[in-house]
Design brief:
Layout: H1 2-5, E1 9-16, E2 21-27, E3 32-37, H2 51-67, E4 72-78, H3 84-93, E5 97-103
Parallel strand pairs: 1-4, 4-5
Antiparallel strand pairs: 1-2, 2-3
Helix pairs in contact: 2-3
C-alpha cells in the first residue's frame, strides 16, 4: 500500500455504460488506489445511469485520491453512457489538475454481420 501512496500523477478510468458508471483511480503503473460506481453509492435501476449518480461516484473517488496524495490526473473515458461529463466536472471541482482527457470508446468499423436474406 505504501508504494501506491507516493505518486502525484494518477489515472482515472471512467467506464460509462447504459446501465452503470464505474470510476477507477490508478497510479501510472496501473495499481488501483480507489474505485467507485453508481451502484456502490446506493443508486438502483434507471437512476444508476444519471449524471448525478456519476457525480456522486466521482466525488467518492476524488476524496480517496486526495487522501492518497494524488494532485494531477489523466482521464480515460470509455463507453456511451450519460454521466461522462458530470464525472469529469466533479473531479475538476475537487481541485484536481487534469492533464489529459482521452476517449477510448470502441467504434465499430463495419458493424456486425447482417442477418441472412429471408426466403419466402
Amino acid at each position: 500500500m505504501d508504494k501506491k501512496k507516493n505518486s502525484v500523477i494518477g489515472e482515472v478510468h471512467i467506464k460509462s455504460t447504459f446501465n452503470n458508471i464505474i470510476i477507477t483511480l490508478t497510479n501510472k503503473k496501473g495499481d488501483v488506489i480507489a474505485w467507485s460506481s453508481a451502484g456502490k453509492m446506493g443508486f438502483k435501476g434507471s437512476k444508476k445511469n444519471t449524471p448525478y449518480a456519476a457525480q456522486v461516484a466521482a466525488e467518492d473517488v476524488a476524496e480517496k485520491g486526495l487522501n492518497a496524495g494524488i494532485k494531477k490526473l489523466e482521464v480515460i473515458i470509455k463507453g456511451p453512457g450519460a454521466g461522462r461529463d458530470a464525472a469529469i466536472r466533479a473531479l475538476v471541482n475537487k481541485n484536481f489538475n487534469i492533464l489529459v482527457i482521452k476517449d477510448i470508446t470502441p467504434i465499430p468499423h463495419n458493424g456486425c454481420r447482417p442477418p441472412k436474406k429471408r426466403r419466402i
